[in-house]
Amino acid sequence: MSLAKRHALVTGSTSGIGLAIARALAKEGADVVINGMGDPTKIEAERTGIEKDFGVRAVFNGADMTKPAEIAAMIADAQTKLGSLDILVNNAGIQFVSPIETFPIEKWDAILAINLSSAFHAMRAAIPGMKTQKWGRIVSTASAHSLVASPFKAAYVAAKHGLAGLTKTAALELATSGVTVNCISPGYVWTPLVENQIPDTMKTRGLTREQVINDVLLVAQPTKQFVTVDQVAAMVVYLCSDAAAQVTGANLSMDGGWTAA
Ligand code: NAD
Fold it and tell me: Model pTM?
């Protein structure tokens, strides 16, 4: 149990990649705060499932990642309830697919807020405690879209490039403090976020579901396989380990070779 006595918070962990990360950290012995939207009954089942499966404490906080004050309050609540916050995983994210000239302004604002600014607000609140205890791990779920672009994803690509830049800046600021800051850039991971963008892409490009999966989503991924949520979670566990103490400021690709091309 390499993370026993560590306390972690994973934003956007009621589903998909975030839930897998929270469960993987709990499996290593960390107490976890889970966060996100969704059906309260299902969220409570996920929370109690983590406690039962791994014998750790799991707390739910429903802070809205578009609201800076709620994000700061969630970090403070985690520190109070768990005693400290050692690991912060910025994972909440949404997607919207549209040409720039018709991209809804409220979708642009929401994607920038949830996929980029929320990480800034969470880091801003969590860093003082990590500096004081001289140990911390900050990991953000970026994307292959932090390194390369795709058409019709202006807000997502802009936010993820920004998240990679924020990661590098924070890593330099915290380099001598015992706190590492990294991001992971998956290619296409099979989650509700990917599944939910298929209808929009079908409409925007006039394609069938199979064509979107094979010719749009996996066309960029040379291995022709989706990344799994457990593979991303395993990378987070590694970055939180002592073996990764000198890994900081990195943007780690996990994209089946997409960005090698
Ligand atoms: P998902 O839709 O399954 O999960 C997103 C999570 O974010 C959910 O828990 C949701 O409730 C939460 N969330 C959304 N809006 C929120 C808000 N306002 N406040 C609080 N929580 C909110 O998606 P996923 O695929 O698991 O994506 C997780 C992260 O991984 C995102 O940052 C995404 O950009 C990134 N990512 C996903 C893929 C992929 O192919 N699925 C690839 C690269 C990166």
Answer: 0.95
Distances (CA, A) of 248 to 38, 197, 233: 33, 32, 18
- Annotation says 238 is catalytic: no
| pLDDT(1) > 70 | no
From first CA to last CA, the distance across the chain in angstroms is 38
Superfamily the domain 7-187+227-260 falls into: NAD(P)-binding Rossmann-like Domain (3.40.50.720)
The first and second tokens of residue 214, run together, are 């094979």
Band the pLDDT of 91: cuts 50, 70, 90: very high
Contact 23, 47 (CB under 8 A): no
Ligand 1 mean position, distance from CA 132 (Å): 30
- What are the helix (H) ranges across 113-191? 118-133, 154-173
pLDDT band (50, 70, 90) for residue 197: confident
For the CA atoms of 13, 98, 118, 243, the dihedral, rounded to the nearest 10 degrees, stands at 60
Query: Which pair of structure tokens corresponds to residue 146?
Result: 């932090």
Are the C-beta atoms of 98 and 199 separated by less than 8 Å?
no
Would the pLDDT of 193 be above 80? no
> What's the Rg (C-alpha) of the chain?
18
Indicate which residue's Cα is closest to atom 23 of ligand 1: 193
- If one residue of 11, 166, 193, 198 were mutated to test the ligand 1 pocket, choosing by the most ligand atoms within 8 A of its CB, it would be 193
Q: Where are the domains of the chain?
A: 7-187+227-260
pLDDT at 194: 80
